[in-house]
Amino acid sequence: MEESNLDQSKHLHQVFMAGLRAERRKVIFVRFLILLLMIGLWEAAGRLKWIDVLLFSYPSKIAVLLWSKIMDGSIFPHIGMTVYETIIGFVLGTVIGTVFAMLIWWSPFLSKVVDPYIVVLNALPKVALGPLFIVGLGAGIMAIVATTLSITVIITTLVVYGAFKEVDANLIKVIRVFGGNKQQIFRKVIFPASIPAIVSSLKVNVGLAWVGVIVGEFLVSKMGLGYLIIYGFQVFNFTLVLGALIIIALVATIMYQIVAYIEQKVIKTR
Q1: pTM score
Q2: GO cellular-component terms in the record (predicted)?
Q3: Which residues does 51 contact at the CB level (< 8 Å), separation at least 6?
Q4: For 48-167, where are the alpha helices, taking DSSP H only?
Q5: 20 to 30 Å CA-CA from 63: which of 40, 70, 117, 260?
């Protein structure tokens, strides 16, 4: 009887997993179908002159331009520079923001002191700080990274500190009952419980890091995808502008999927 119930449970589990896989395949298929329809409509609109080709171009024209730049290798230094700056801003923003969240959690006095400043900095338009970074740090990669950090650090701090505060108070009481100090509370309860929030903040920081880098390249860079966008506008080559935007979307998606994969592994491990 027990073996029969076990076999039935295994069968139900297999049916359930098969249903999940089928649904996942349907979702992927519909995503690609929507993408193909959008590309096809855009291509038709461009070739039939339903849109201004000078401004909006069309997919095949963009593909020809990108392929020519791939063949002559001129696009790779721009991609490499932007990805390099983005990774630096992404990693430093996450680390610095997490460390700062730890500090203000550790010291309630410090938390009360810096709270209004964090609110103001979060509300401040970060693009407005770009010229200040350029003047202070020079027209180079340091100003671009600083612009990125001005966005990622504050958001990471708010997300991670909020996760620290939302940890179940009963867990903290258990550590205190057994004589645990603040360091042990943080190491045994606060930080482990907040790991999912920290990993989730990485997903947010991927997009924010790209925003910061592209804005910085708009202002100062002579190399990178942001520079290509500005250059394309200056010479009225909007096909180049759209091509650079497509590359940004592709690379940002790859980075996001990597972080999402890490998040799944962390959650599965926990």
Answers
A1: 0.81
A2: plasma membrane
A3: 45, 58
A4: 53-56, 59-72, 76-106, 108-123, 130-137, 141-165
A5: 260
Q: How far apart are CA 20 and CA 15, in angstroms?
A: 9
> Mean of the pLDDT values across residues 19-42?
87
Identify the CATH number of the domain defined by range 60-269.
Answer: 1.10.3720.10
Report the SS3 class of residue 52.
Answer: coil
List pLDDT tens digits, range 104-114: 988 888 888 88
Polymer length of the chain: 270
Tell me which of 107-111, 127-131, 154-158, 249-253 is least confident. 127-131
CA dihedral 16, 18, 23, 25 (to 10 degrees): 160
- Per the rule left: phi > 0, alpha: psi between -120 and 50, beta: everything else, 167 is beta
Distances (CA, A) of 114 to 55, 100, 156, 191, 194: 46, 11, 15, 21, 21
Matching residue, tokens 């179908």: 33
Start-to-end Cα distance in the chain: 34
Q: What are the extents of the domains in the chain?
A: 2-51, 60-269
